[in-house]
């Protein structure tokens, strides 16, 4: 038996020599010595570093670096690049930066653009964009000359941060640094511009890149097509697809998925289905995203039955629907009043061996609660827990809402207690549901306790929570307290700003106190803040004029004035809604009001949109 060890005693190799091989020892000795020398060489250390890096054994990596330093080994840049990549995979960007900064002084290894880009890439992959910009500027200040990859990385970081103008300036610097932008550079910048809504600038870059001899790939086109679809400009998106074919760039599944999603957003389901057929004919295979997008679009248009048929087709093609497809179908069927079909679909899903997750369970529980069957939903929740699927805050809030809605106050409170005892931390939606339920039942004192509990846990109330408590105050005749809460809302962020529901609660409360002038002042304040009245607002004020004033008024002058106010503020959609309410109440608008609204609604583009809407309703 022959064992070979390194100088520090670590095992290197083991050779077992049988009795029949003694005569070959001398021949093999030279090979062993060569092997020994190899294992002791710098390349061995590199191999060990690679191994430790792949295992993410950073303690051993540091020891190996220390040993190499003690033995005065030569450190090459590729050693550090391997370690930087390992730090990136382990989500340790600060470690990568620290090691980069130690390279010269501690390890006598010169930093080049390769190691610099490696660390920069780690920072960007970990979304440390501020740190990436600082690292970039520091490196440039120390004399590191960026290459096209450096520019690509830093432009990506700037676009992710929304610093698109700065990204454009950096892009323009590339020519001064003898760096030619590639397709990745252009695509990244286009994506940043599209996300800022600057679609025209992004499209102009498409022309520029082709003039410069850089030809777009499917990714480039997909970025622009997605931007146009998000803006609803499907005509230009279609032209870009035609342009793709002319340039010999074949659309891929991402292109088709993006267009189908855009068509579904605009409610153009026939064209979406037609595009799916075109996709199949062009031998571009639809995936689960394609079918899921189409099903979701059908559900949103109230055509869930068609969505179920697409689900069947999808399964026939060998695709397994994900949880979002099933949850969308359950929600759609329940919303359309097809609780029986939803439960059949549930049974079919279970029979196929598909294991529902928290998203699917929550959609089913919410649907049953909307259908007025919270007890059935509670049974599903029990089954969910039994099968090892943990309910989340959304699941519990749906069940609480269902019990409150059907008048089962105590059962709703028990759900809240179960949620807390099961370790599920309530979020602002849960608090809002509980507050709304308590205040609807006149439990203002308990509602205030929940409010304090919510604030004490650092959970910020949303518009529903505020509106619920305001409703509780108004029901108790404490309208001034409700108005104080409204003023508090106005100082909050967007999620907590009052909506028309909040204002309607206060209008109703002021109406009960016969404080009509204050209600009208609040209405004017609401309009000034950009919040439009709805049917309920109109009904509240009509009741005020017809029941609270002496002599009684039909409210026609008030509604006419409201329409003109909205027109002056260029809010013609809201103004036309008020006119519609007037016609439903057999109140004739003044001739001047008619003229103002008709003139606005009969602008060519709006007429075309209305005709298209009517055509869609007639033929779909």
From TrEMBL:
Q: Would the keyword Transmembrane helix be found if you checked this record's keyword annotation? A: no
What are the start and end residues of each PPR repeat?
147-181, 182-216, 217-251, 252-286, 287-321, 322-356, 357-391, 392-426, 427-461, 462-496, 499-533
Gene3D superfamilies according to UniProt: Tetratricopeptide repeat domain
Q: Does the keyword Transmembrane helix apply?
A: no
UniProt keywords, alphabetically: Repeat
The record's similarity note reads: Belongs to the PPR family. P subfamily.
Give the PANTHER family listed for this entry: PENTATRICOPEPTIDE REPEAT-CONTAINING PROTEIN 3, MITOCHONDRIAL
What is the protein name stated in its UniProt record?
A: Pentatricopeptide repeat-containing protein
Organism, as annotated: Thalictrum thalictroides (Rue-anemone)
